Amino acid sequence: MKILISADMEGATGVTWPADVLPGTPQWERCRALFTSDVNAAALGFFDGGADEVLVNEAHWTMRNLLLEQLDERVQMITGRHKGLSMLEGVQHGDVDGIAFVGYHTGAGAEGVLAHTYLANSVTGVWLNGVPASEGHLNAHVVAEYGVPVVLVTGDDLTCVDAAGYAPGARTVAVKDHVSRYAARCRTPARTAADIRAAAKEAVALAVRHEPVRGGPFTVEVEFDAEHLAAAATVVPGVTRAGAPRRIAYSSSTMYEAIRTFKAVTTIVSSAVEEQYG
């Protein structure tokens, strides 16, 4: 049995504000250990439950945040950027039985600690077939096309509520409770590690591959905080304005195509953001 962990940082233990997750800051350096503790706890729980292999894919920012030397020696990790499936790299090879979203968060425009979707700002909302979509929501539809269930989600309490919508059978662990976008009531690392490990052990029973789900076509709408960003996004083939100055839309036959287009859109938009005025 092989489990893939997609590891994001905003939903990690103790993380509450931008400096905690921005590479190079003193706070980020401190929070790397907390992030690594959450991921290692999940890995240990999966091994406790009978998994033979745990592969971790770094999914935050530079994708070079986790401390490899602090992970259990049985774990392997994909680190670094420019991967074909970005946050989900590793799921496409047909040998993953279940996936965990560790350190996840709510989506752009929603309540939640450090809530966003791909871009830290600029994106004010994302909808998949008319339904508000967080990164977890989008990613769950992608892995479904590979027959892989989401078995565990960790993050703040509102992330766990969000997960009930896209992975209702998954185990969830709230490592902190939302107070505001930049504040949370946090559990200690010792407690969250124990909670995550226990949930991951139980989640192994859910790691049963299923027939790939072909749910397309998929229509993705994205709203930005400035009109020129929507204009920039239309450079991507198939992306058009969606009836409002700051909103674009596109359709894809598969979620694999949809998520890759989304990555292209956000990459181009991020390069169109100007200092101060956005």
Question: How many beta-strand runs?
Answer: 12
The helix tally amounts to 6
End-to-end separation: 46 Å
Main sheet overview: 7 strands, mixed
What structural category arises from helix and sheet content? alpha/beta
Summary tags:
278 residues; alpha/beta; 7-stranded mixed beta sheet; 5-stranded antiparallel beta sheet; 6 helices; 23% strand; globular
Structural topology:
Blueprint: E1 2-7, H1 26-48, E2 53-58, E3 76-78, E4 98-102, E5 123-128, E6 131-132, H2 135-144, E7 150-156, H3 157-166, E8 171-180, E9 183-186, H4 189-203, E10 218-224, H5 227-233, E11 240-241, E12 247-252, H6 255-271
Parallel strand pairs: 1-2, 1-4, 2-3, 4-7, 7-8
Antiparallel strand pairs: 5-6, 5-10, 8-9, 10-12, 11-12
Helix pairs in contact: 1-4, 2-3, 5-6
What can you tell me about this protein's structure?
- The chain has 278 residues and is of the alpha/beta class.
- It has six helices and twelve strands.
- It has helices spanning 26-48, 135-144, 157-166, 189-203, 227-233, 255-271, and strands at residues 2-7, 53-58, 76-78, 98-102, 123-128, 131-132, 150-156, 171-180, 183-186, 218-224, 240-241, 247-252.
- It has a seven-stranded mixed β-sheet, with helices on both faces. Strands 6-5-10-12-11 form a five-stranded antiparallel β-sheet.
- The chain starts with a strand and ends in a 7-residue tail after the last helix.
- The mean pLDDT is 98.
